[in-house]
Amino acid sequence: xxxxxxxxxxxxxxxxxxxxLGRRIxxxxxxxxxxxxxxxxxALARPDGPLIWLHGASVGEAISLLTLIDRLKTAVPxxxxxxxTGTVTSARMLADRLPKGAVHQYVxxxxxxxxxxxxxxxxxxxxxxxESEFWPNLISETAVRGNPLVLVNGRISPRSFKGxxxxxxxxxGLLGGFALCLGQTEGDAxxxxxxxxxxxxSVGNLKFAADPLPADAARLADLRAATAGRPLWLAASTxxxxxxxxxxxxxxxxxxxxxLLTIIVPRHxxxxxxxxxxxxxxxxxxxxxxxxxxxxxxxxxxxxxxMGELGLFFTLAPVVFMGKSLSADGxxxxxxxxxxxxxxxxxxxxxxxxxxxxxxAAAGASLPVADEASLSAAVGRxxxxxxxxxxxxxxxxxxxxxxxxxxxxxxxxxxxxxQRLDGARxxx
Length: 428
What we know:
Strand content: 5-15%
CATH architecture of the largest domain: 3-Layer(aba) Sandwich
CATH topology of the largest domain: Rossmann fold
Distance between the termini: 30 Å
Strand order of the largest sheet: 3-2-1-4-5-6-7
Number of helices: 19
Largest sheet: 7 strands, parallel
Number of strands: 14
């Protein structure tokens, strides 16, 4: 009933969808050159042979899928890989990191005409849906076509669970379209079962299995030369308000750590110019990487507002604060800096990574901070005690490495579905 009503609304709402997408283009949130993909019109031909379709909402999900893609290509060499996401930043990242035999397309907007056009063209033999972006038309139409649909790294927060509980038949019907549901944690699996995904279980968080973010050796050497002898720390994946906090932390710690350099990587690079102007107005001496600048001896804050270089700055910085955890809620993936040997700090607002944050903190692999004052104290403490910072970094790397077995457990669950692809030819 509710699915039918949803389909009616999305069909009737075509003009509103077009207006919405037009506004996103103007805001830089859609790629105008690839706009047709959002309408289900493929920019590429479907390759011959079996095709595995993987979907992740944005950058975080896409990164977690890269290791899985490599393992899928090893398990089924003849398989072609299609990856869909919905954000410009994820598309740019994947353009640089997808292996041969894998292509990216933007996910179609969840309107039946677009969905059917997309599925008619690509005809996936197996679909792996990551995390928690449940598009009703895409899921139900994929499921009804008869090829397996598997939820991997499924995440249902307590808040989402409460919301979905108001529509039990609707969510139960959607989850029933999945042949298998695999949750990130036992809590996620339990909530999935309660919502109607019979047999849902957890093999662990796929983000634990991701490879370290890449760092270009030449660029790293240049940055190390430009910052040699200076104490530095990194505020990574920051949201509005956290850049101001980072600048105030810098001011608090500058006297105790002469030559201190604060590096800020905004979660959305298109904010870089505004962040730089904002901090400069507060008296900071700022350089911006997006403008082609390198930090010099007088630079206090370096804004790294480029795509695909987060691994570079994790490798450079011994102490890292992960954003979206003080001024915004949700948190970020703490394992990304952990894999690259950073002492990892994060705020209390870790809703999307609560299990990861709690487990790392309990293992001494991360250092939670309650507020701006405790962040400043922690940064100052770790910059002043390199032995303690290195010990945190070792525990963080050890934690990340110990959890990497999730990819083997996931592949074991997928084996029955992958074995069926040997006979798939991608015919209509």
